[in-house]
Amino acid sequence: MAHPDLATYFEGCLLGVMTGDSLGGRVESTSFGVLRHRYPGHDVQEMHPGRYGSASEMTLALAESLASDPEFDGEDFARRLCLRCHDTRSYGQGTLISLGHLRGGADWNQAGDAPAGRGCYGNAAAARGAAIGLLYSGDVDTLRWIAEEAAGVTHTHALGVEGAVVFALATALALSSRGRSIVPLAFLESIAAETQMREYRSRLESAATLAERDWDEKTIVERLGNNQTALGSVVTAIACFACHPANFLDPVSAAIRLGGNATSIVAMTGALAGARHGRASIPLNWLGGLESAELCVEDMAGAARALASVCP
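^ that's the sequence the OP posted. Answer follows.
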């Protein structure tokens, strides 16, 4: 049974996904130059959340599945994905193809397969993976195995799978950092030491170098990316958090002002900030402005509490 105080951080993380996803939808595909002028300083806090997107639906499906079976049941997760996911919620083409295979009766461990090994390398598997980092923050080996298995339901390309592992590792570190200071350089280097792909290690090392300079949106986008690929977004979100760790508002604001694939990048950043600071850190106007449709705030919070209750 998890320590009862842990639940607020689990809630902060999953609600951070929904909040970031909904805010990011407001600025999706906008250039960082436009956003820097539109939202200087903390003006971002006045934004009203838009519709939640695919990251929220998939995060909830995975959290509910892991709360039901912490050792990961691929068939159960695939079933919940099919139930929770709606095509109108901004899904990438690769994820939609895999969901179509699942709904057509494909096995969960074959739905993401593609001809000639051309599996999806987008960021959706990473963006939904916060629950894995929460649940296995103290067990890197199990975290990696489950992140790889859960990613493979829709994403089989090595870059897409490793992106899911890297984000789960970052979530675990963010949760473990609560109550302690964060040194951006050390945070990023700790994740780099655990990744098994040169491409991510190089990107994390680049982010660590940038963490020692003044934050500059142009340089961040040029060096780390702000696109829909896992490689071009996961480390970007981690850098937004690691370089602005003091509260929930600052890293999310930094992520919003990068533009590009904002739904996923801001959702991942919100997850990390929420895991460190807890539910109470999310501005009330953002939390209160979240959409209530096929899922709502209490659905996400309830899944977070259920997940905390089975945490080793």
